Amino acid sequence: MKLARLSRSLLRTATVVAFALTATACATNQADSGATDAAYRVNDPLEIPNRFVFAANEAADILVIRPAAEVYVGVVPDPVRDVISNFIDNLMSPLYIANNLLQGNVEGASNATGRFLTNTILGVGGLADVATEAGIPRAPEDFGQTLAVWGVGDGPYLVLPLLGPSNLRDTAGYAVDTVGDPFRIWAYGTDHKDVYLVRGMVGAVDRRSQILREVDDLRRNSVDFYATVRSLYQQQRRAEISNNKAPATPEFPDFTDAPKP
Higher model confidence: residue 249 or residue 192? Predict the structure, then answer.
C-alpha cells in the first residue's frame, strides 16, 4: 500500500514539474524571485508541517524514484517507453470521460471518448497514440477540477505524505478518482491488486524519466524549492480548471508548481 501511494506521489510531482517546464521553458533566478512573491498570496496556513512533509517526499524522490528512472532510461528503449506511456494514459481515459460529463463539458467528453476508442481499437489496446496523430488532443480531467467547476474553493494548501502538493479540494477529488478508477475496481474485484500496484509504480518511473535533467535544473536554480513548487501547483491547477483558456500568469508574475494515476 505504501508503495502504491509513493508511486502516485512521485507521478504527481513529475506532472507538476513537467507543467512548469512547459510553461517557463526553464527555471531562472528571476522566475524564482517571482515565485517567492507569489507564494505570499497562497493560502498556506500549515506551512511549517507542509515543509516537513515536502522534505520527506523530496528524500523519497532523490533516494528511490530518480535512480529508478535513470535505470529505466538506460535499459528500456525509447519506443518501448512510448508504448508504456500510451498504455497507462489510455487506462485513465474512463476517468477523463466521467469527469468531463460531471462538469457538463459535452465536447470534452466526446473528445476523451474519441481518444479512448481510437487508441483502444486502432492503437492495439492503447499501445499506440493514434488519436493524437489523428488530431484528437489529450486533455486529462480529474474530480478536483470537477469540484472547482461546481464552485468549490481551493481550501488551504497541503503537502500530503507520499502524495505531494495538493489542497483541500484536490485531496477530496483525488480520493474520489482513486475509489472510482475503473481499473482499480477491476483489479480489486478480480484479486489483481498487484497489477494495479505495478501500473502506478511503472507510471511514476516513466513520468519521472521524462524530466530527469529538468527537475535537477529546477531544484538547483530555485532559491526556495518549496515555494516554487507551491506556486507552480496553484498555477497548474488554475490552468487545468480553465482548460488552459486563462492567461498564463493571471495573478502571478511567474509560474511555480508538482499525478495521476
Answer: 192
The 10s digit of each residue's pLDDT in 166-193 is 999 999 999 999 999 999 999 999 999 9
What is the signed CA dihedral for 237, 199, 192, 180, rounded to 10 degrees? 10
Count of domains forming the chain: 1
Q: Is the pTM of this model over 0.90?
A: no
User: Do the domain assignments include residue 35?
Assistant: no
Please report whether residue 256 resides in a domain.
Answer: no
Question: Which grid cell is 94?
Answer: 474512463
Q: What is the phi/psi pair of residue 17, to 5°?
A: -65, -40
Domain that holds residue 213: 2-21+43-241
d(CA 133, CA 32): 36
The answer to whether residue 257 sits within a structural domain is no
Do 95 and 177 form a contact (C-beta atoms < 8 A)? yes
Residue 14: its pLDDT value, please?
42
First and final C-alpha spacing in the chain: 15
